[in-house]
Each structure stands twice: as structure tokens, then as C-alpha cells.
Amino acid sequence: MSEEVVLLDVSDGIATVTLNRPQARNALSREVLRTLPRILQECDERDDARVVIITGADPAFCAGLDLKELGSDDRRGERMAEPPTDPQGPLPPIGKPVIGAVNGAAITGGFELALNCDFLVASDRARFADTHTRVGIQPGWGLTVLLREAVGIRRARELSTTGNFLDAATALTWGLVNHVVAHDELLPFCRQLAADIGSNDPAGVSRILATYREGSMVTDHEAWSIEAGVAREWMVSGHGSAAEVAQRREGVMARGRGQVR
Length: 261
Hints:
Order of helices and strands: EEHEHEEHEEHHHEHEHHHH
């Protein structure tokens, strides 16, 4: 029986999705590209999973498209998977937060996969590179949109035109990742963040993520209007009532006191 190319573990309300082709540096084969969206959709539908973590089997996060598989195909002019129809690229649009736990190299399509997560935590072994121009292809999973959102247009242009690697420490300084942690602490750290998210109102988390995504597709002026409309609809629907907020306020304050250093 062949080894599963994408692994799923669900525990304590957290779904951990692991790209499992370590011998190929977790390159995106056709099988991975078919399996990963299906597993993400399953996570979205499961009541026992509130947050999703995506990572890779060591030593890499994801080396991008499997160029060996692509090069051995007589139809090499064709893509290995159907072109993405959703702006979110390789990941299906789901309502649950997706944390990218970048444990090693994230290159080209693997870099795009990371950028499509809601936010990133990097191991101190992580490295990032956009090598589209070195390989001679063009990005199609949102890199030119998401990378400039993360690091700014000038740094994004530098990364894409040079193809140079970015180490974890610089990725943190540039705002590409939220945190850099020791390699062995990567998944425990991400699981703690996931637990923090999971302790909040699931509907509220899902709606605010959707608002961020909707706002990123339009102008700033339109994004303000979207947020205002969502707030009105949320109150009318019965969410966020005064009684509900009052009930939760003490817990929020106690948690805040506990996090003050």
C-alpha cells in the first residue's frame, strides 16, 4: 500500500495537515494537489476541528510543483492540476483559520502555499524563495498579490526578480511571518496559538476572517463599507448582543490580565 502523501491528525480541536513526501521535499505532485483541497474541505466540515495547521514532513515545508513529475509528462505544456478558479489559489476557501507552520524551505509553489495561509509561524530552519523567474514560469496562486501585502511592493519585487532565498530571521523583520521559534518548538507553539483561537466564538472567528478576505479584494474605501455592513448584519442576526457580550467580558478581562507582563 502506498504511503499517504497528505496526513491528517485531529486532536483537541486542532487539525494538523502534513505534506508527507519528505524524500521529494514535499513537492506538489498531482496526488498532493488532488488530496490537499479534499482534506482541507473535510477539516472545514468537522465539528471537532476549529483551527487548521499546515506543515511539512521534515526537512522541508514544500519545494513547489514536482518538476520531475512535470518533466516526465509528455503533456508538459499542461498544468499538473486544474488551474485555480478561486483567488485563494491552492487552498479551498474555508471558514476556519489556517496557520502555516513553516518547518523548512518554502519555494515557489510552496511559498505560494504558505502565503495562502491566514498567518505563518516559522522554524529557525525555514527559508523562503520565489524562483518562478529562475524556472521560467509565472505564478498563478496569488503570489504577486499576497507577497506584496506581506512585505511591501519593493521587497516583493526584489524577491521575485532575484529568486534569492530569505532566511527566517529576515522574514520576521520584513513581516512575512508572525513568529520565529526553535525548530522543535514549532508545532507546540502553533498548537498553543490554535488553542487561543479555538477558545473564542467560532462563528465570530469565521466571520472576521471572511471580512479580512473580502476587504483584501477591493479598495480600502470599499473595505470600510464591507466591515460596516458586516457589523450591522451581525448585530441584527442576534450575535454580539449586549447580554452575550456582558457574559463574556469578565473572561476576556481575566485573560488579558494573565497575558500582561
